[in-house]
């Protein structure tokens, strides 16, 4: 397929709610409009180039999982913007505008709720920062594990390892007591139980599609008093996806995510401070293919 132009920034005549590393979120008369750009970040720095189709993969794959897990947990999805005139239903006539075509497929209308300041990480395999910690201390997020585990090994049971969700700091591990202090015991227990249940369900489904979900992270919000899933769900940006046929214990795994970007940046000797260097075309193309492959294998369809 021909690579489309890359969307790095959106400018809509709506109040900007927040501009994140990847997504731009706008106020939409009681709801929010989340637009997934093609921006890519690595080591907490946004790169000067984007990854074609990345935003559409993040948006449509999140929508796929929100629908698939709706019986397990309510979520904030109101409508995927497949046809831009649908936005008329969310704006009074005097505030409607000429909607840019790029909104189709890469944006969704969601409920505006109160986000909980905890990032809910679930790990089913020993990889990434968990492997680094285990190799040095024999623990993962402070939890002592059995001796002799290998890199990328499946854990005896999935671990709930929450982290902070701050705007101005790197995420850091949280103890169960810290989560309870912030959320209260009942809510802390609920987000742990729901995180593990959703991960277990998604993991079994993904295995049927030839994909291992090694770990993932969820975000929750409160819709009144009701706990719901928000943000993105089980995407290559929030999860580690491995090909089950290539999986081998005792070594790093090839992931369907931005690993080619991280690998290339590491080789350049970049100091991981802004500005980041421009990616070469072959790295951009390889990363695009990984995002598309993750979408196609998990959903069973091509990105339209």
Which SSEs are present, and which pair or pack?
Layout: E1 16-19, E2 23-28, E3 31-36, E4 39-42, E5 45-50, H1 54-68, E6 77-80, E7 107-111, E8 114-115, E9 118-125, H2 128-137, E10 139-140, E11 143-144, E12 154-160, E13 163-164, H3 176-183, H4 185-208, E14 211-223, E15 226-230, E16 239-243, H5 259-268, H6 281-299
Antiparallel strand pairs: 1-2, 2-3, 3-7, 4-5, 6-7, 8-14, 9-12, 9-13, 9-14, 10-11, 14-15, 14-16
Give a summary of the structure in a few sentences:
The chain has helices at 54-68, 128-137, 176-183, 185-208, 259-268, 281-299, and strands at 16-19, 23-28, 31-36, 39-42, 45-50, 77-80, 107-111, 114-115, 118-125, 139-140, 143-144, 154-160, 163-164, 211-223, 226-230, 239-243. With 304 residues, the chain is an alpha+beta fold.
CATH architecture of the largest domain: 2-Layer Sandwich
Number of E-state strands: 16
Mean pLDDT: 95
- The CATH C-level name of the largest domain is Alpha Beta
The main pleated sheet reads as:
7 strands, antiparallel
Kindly state the percentage of residues in helix. 25-40%
CA-based shape: globular
Helix/strand order, N-terminal first: EEEEEHEEEEHEEEEHHEEEHH
What is the CA-CA span between the terminal residues?
A: 11 Å
Give me the CATH superfamily of the largest domain: ATP-grasp fold, B domain
Number of helices: 6
Strand content: 25-35%
Radius of gyration, in Å, reads 19 Å
Which structural class do you get from the secondary structure elements? alpha+beta
Low-confidence sequence ranges: none
Number of domains: 2
- Per CATH, what is the topology of the largest domain? D-amino Acid Aminotransferase, Chain A, domain 1
